[in-house]
Amino acid sequence: MKNTKKVLLVALMLIGIVLCFAEETEYSVTVTVTGITNYEGGISIGLFSNEENYSKGDVFLGAFVKADNETITYTFENIPEGVYAIAIYHDENSNKKLDSNFLHIPKEGYGFSNNVFGTFGPPKFEKAKFEVKKDIQLEIRMKY
Q1: Which of 1, 58, 128, 131 has the smallest count of CB within 10 Å of its CB?
Q2: Are 46 and 87 in contact (CB under 8 A)?
């Protein structure tokens, strides 16, 4: 009985030591959106975890933030290390889609991580990607 208590105590101490020195593997990604021209609707922010999901529009995490200032900030928490990209749009009429005209030119503001834009459509994942190995702060300027 006495040995069992000692073994249990040592095991708990070792677990505590390992947890104290364990490397952090999840981080925060803070996105600041600038250049918002009106305060209708909100800003949709999509965090994409790989090229395939980015091209499909399948977000890893998403957020919708009220457009109540010309600059808004949102933080994604507990993001694992990896390569990501962000796409944003100003959903002025809150219909949960980026409205465009008959030529598929956006009628609402939009933007991408690294402040890159595509020629005929969104930029390639390769241009918008960024690596998360620590807490990250990004600024994305809205384009209307």
Answers
A1: 1
A2: yes
